[in-house]
Design brief:
By secondary structure, this protein is mainly α. The protein has a single domain (3-134), classed as Arc Repressor Mutant, subunit A. It is built from six helices and three strands, in the order H-H-E-H-H-E-E-H-H. It has helices spanning 3-40, 44-55, 62-69, 73-85, 107-127, 133-152; strands at 60-61, 89-93, 101-105. It has a three-stranded antiparallel beta sheet with strand order 1-3-2. Helix 2 (44-55) packs across helix 5 (107-127). The two termini are 38 Å apart.
């Protein structure tokens, strides 16, 4: 078998795998969006910001949140505005630079996020319920390898 034929088969397998990865991502994300909206009246971007603030050891600036979540400052600002109106986050101006604001969870936000995070974990567990623990481990390792391969590819530096 020629190298071109072998490469063509690999190319098709790569494309099929990519399409499966995308379709799984879209399906899971869509179901999570619906569940978060229906049960907690929050959007997935709001949940993502709450999760990032919960993980952080200190209040985060808009730029730090933007960088961590790989979205624009404008997107973060709009989502933070809505979270602030809901009482989930507090915005505090920097004492040294009035253009910089620090965002932190409020006690209400911490409590609400803890409930959301528990349910989020349950939903993901249910959605991936047909996979055994060993299969989940193997899939996680394979996806990590795929991520490293994509990041090392010839298309340039990818931010993680």
């Amino acid at each position: 078998m020629s190298a071109a034929v072998k490469q063509g088969g690999r190319s098709k397998a790569s494309l099929r795998t990519w399409i499966r990865m995308i379709s799984c991502t879209i399906l899971v994300e869509s179901r999570l969006r619906t569940k978060l909206r229906d049960e907690f009246d929050v959007t997935l971007p709001q949940f993502d910001i709450l999760a990032e603030l919960d993980r952080a050891e200190a209040p985060q600036t808009m730029s730090e949140l933007s960088r961590q979540l790989l979205v624009s400052n404008a997107n973060v600002t709009g989502v933070v505005d809505r979270l602030e109106r809901a009482g989930f986050v507090k915005r505090t101006a920097s004492s040294t630079d009035r253009r910089v604001h620090y965002i932190a969870l409020t006690p209400t936000g911490k409590s609400a996020f803890a409930k959301m995070a528990r349910r989020h974990e349950e939903w993901v567990q249910e959605m991936l319920g047909e996979l055994t623990e060993d299969e989940l481990g193997s899939l996680g390792e394979l996806l990590s390898k795929a991520k490293r391969s994509a990041a090392a590819g010839p298309l340039g530096e990818i931010q993680e």
